[in-house]
Amino acid sequence: MRTLILVLILALSAAIALAHGDEEHDDDDVEEVKIGEVAVPENPTYHEHARPIIEARCVACHSDGQIAAYAPLTDPQDVVFFADDIKFHVVNGIMPPWMPSRANLPLKNDRSLSDEEIATIAAWVDAGAAMGDSHDYAPSATDRFDLVEVRADLTLQLEEPYEPDPDVLDDYRCFALPLEIEAPQFITGYEFIPDVAEMAHHNILYLFDETADRVIQRRNYADGRPGWSCYGGPGLAVGGEGIGGWAPGASPVLFPQGAGFLIRPGQHIVVEMHYNLWTARQPDQSRIILQLESAESELTELMNISLAAPVEIPCPTGLEGPQCERGAAIERVAELYGEDARYTPDYLLRECGQRLADYAANTGENAIGYCDYPITKSLTLYSVSGHMHELGRSFRMELNPDSEDSLLLLDIPRWDFHWQDQYYFVEPLEVSYGDVLRMECAWDNSLSDDPRYVVWGEGTADEMCFGSLLALKP
Ligand code: HEC
User: Fold this and answer.
1) 325 near 275, Cβ under 8 Å?
2) 94 in ligand 1 pocket by Cβ < 6 Å?
3) Whether the bond into 76 is cis, omega within 30 of 0
4) pLDDT tens digits for range 314-351
5) Cβ(227)–Cβ(269) under 8 Å?
6) Is 212 in the pocket of ligand 1 (CB under 6 A)?
C-alpha cells in the first residue's frame, strides 16, 4: 500500500536551478531543498522496497571485486548495517555517483535515482530498516545498471614497472605501447586497468603512426627509465590522435555500434599517465585492454575533437601578494613545465577570440573560463567529456547557448574531481554549419590549500578547462 507524503529531497535539485544563466555560479555549493510530492510505501521493508532499488542501482559497484567492494550491499545484513549511511548518501545525491544534472541531454548508463526511489530508501531507513519477507522481493522494472564488458583481444602493458620520479608530486609520464597486430583492425572498445589505483590521477590515450617511431626511440629510456617525461602532451613533434582517456570512476568504453578507431601494424598507442604521488609511490605497470574487429568489417572511423578554454583565476578576495600576479603564475608554469607552457594562457585567449579584459569580472571565488566554437561542417557526435582539476565548481558544454533550441550536452553543476567520465548520448547528436558550441568552466580558488593566481597548467595545483567530443570522421 502506498500513501502520498511530502518529502524533502536535497538530491540533485541544485542542478536544476543551475541549468540556465551565468548568475547562478555563486550558489551551487548551497544545497537547495526541494519539496516534492512522492508516493512512498507505508510499511517499507528491505525485501519488498529497498532491495529492488539497491540491486538495480548499487550492487554493480558495491559487490565483490568491484570498485566499492569494501562496502558490499549484496547481503541483507550488510545493507541494514549501512542503512543510515545509505540514506545520507542517497538523499544528498552523493550516491549513486552521477554528476550530470537532470537538465542534461539524456545519457547512457544514467545511474541517478528517481525522486520516488530516493524517497523510498529514505522512508525505509526512517521506519527502522525492517527486513520483511524475502518472498516479497521482485526485481526492479528499471534496467540494472551494469558495468560494460570489454573483450580482451589485445592487452597492452607498460614494458616494465615504472618507478615514479622521486622529486615531484605530480609525475607526467608517456609510454609508447606498440600495437602488435598482423593486419589493420578497428578498436571498438577499451578498458584501462590501473596497477596502483591510489596514484593513477588520469590518463589520455593517443594513436601515433610510423612517422613518430624515430622520436619515440630517442625519447624512450633517455633518462634511464621507461617512457619519457611529458607535460601537456606526448611532445613528439608529429601529431597523434586522441582516442580516449581514463579518470577515477570512469567506466570501460565500448564505442558506438558500427564504428571504431582504425589501427595498423607498426603504430603505437602512447599513454600519457598522470601520477599524483601525495598518498602512494609505488612501481606501476598498468594495462590497457583493447577490443578489436577486423578492418574488413567495414566499420566507420571515429575521431576525437579536443576543446580548451582560457583559465584566468585570480586570488581569493582579500589575499594579496606577488603570488596573486598573473605574470608570476605564468613564470611558475614556464619553470615547472617548460617554455611552451608560458605561451598557453595567451594562446587560449587568442584562439577563443578573447582578451584578458573579458575576464575582469572573475573573482577568486567565482572565476569562469569559456570558449565558443562555431561548427563549420556537419558532424555526428557520440560522447562528451569535461576535465578540470580540484578547484572546479561546474562544467558545461552547451549547443547554441542563449537560443531557444539550446541543448546541454554536458551539465555538471557540482564538479567532483573523483568522478570524471566520458558520457555517451542516448541518441547520437547531429550538429551542422551555423551551430555554436560553448564550453564553460567555473572555479573556486578558495578551495585551494595554497591560493595564488592560477593559469592553465598540468599539475593538480594548476587548472584546466578541457573538453572532448567523440565524432564520426566526416
Ligand atoms: C559506479 C559505482 C557505484 C555505484 C553505482 C554506487 N556506488 Fe556507492 N560508492 C562507490 C564508491 C567508489 C564509493 C567510495 C567513495 C567514493 O569513491 O566516492 C562508494 C561509497 C558509498 C557509501 C559510503 C560507504 C562508507 O561508509 O564509506 C555508501 C553508503 C554508498 N556508496 C551507497 C551507495 C548506494 C546506496 C548506491 C545505490 C543507490 C550506490 N552507492 C551506488 C561506488 C558506487
Assistant:
1) no
2) no
3) no
4) 999 999 999 999 999 999 999 988 888 899 999 999 99
5) no
6) no
